[in-house]
Specification:
The chain has 127 residues and is of the alpha/beta class. It has a single domain, classed as Barwin-like endoglucanases. Helix content is 20%, strand content 29%. It has a 6-stranded mixed beta barrel with strand order 1-5-2-4-3-6. The longest helix has 14 residues. The chain is globular and about 65 Å long.
């Protein structure tokens, strides 16, 4: 195998990683906003354990999501009225759910969809 002076396997790996991160293919893997229907938890769950072990607080700003890690901060925007709130994922939503997120009653009040029970929302992971 022909070797070039100054090119090491470490540099090649670094170049490949940089290319993967900066290429359009690498950019496509960034977390794109997710859209879908939001529900809010029934008050009967207030004080019960979530799947993360935290207690559900209807007055808190937390949410259940199908796949995002516990502790993930999400900006949730009601697309009908452009109201938004930042929530922390602390529960798991069933994979069979038609909703993309379940939020607390307090979050549903902030997003102004308590009376309708559901809203079309946009989810954006916060750094």
């Amino acid at each position: 195998m022909h070797r070039h002076p100054g090119i090491t396997s470490t540099r090649i790996v670094a170049l490949l990683v940089a290319f993967a991160v900066l290429s359009p293919i690498g950019l496509a893997t960034a977390q794109a906003p997710e859209q879908g229907i939001a529900h809010f938890y029934n008050d009967k769950y207030h004080g019960k354990k979530t799947t993360s072990g935290e207690l559900y607080d209807k007055d808190g700003l937390t949410a259940a999501h199908k796949t995002l890690a516990y502790g993930t901060k999400l900006k949730v925007t009601n697309v009908a009225n452009d109201k938004s709130v930042v929530l922390t994922v602390n529960d798991r939503l069933s994979r069979s759910s038609k909703a993309v997120i379940d939020v607390t009653r307090h979050a549903a009040e902030e997003l102004d969809f308590v009376s309708s029970g559901t809203a079309k929302v946009k989810l954006e992971v916060q750094k």
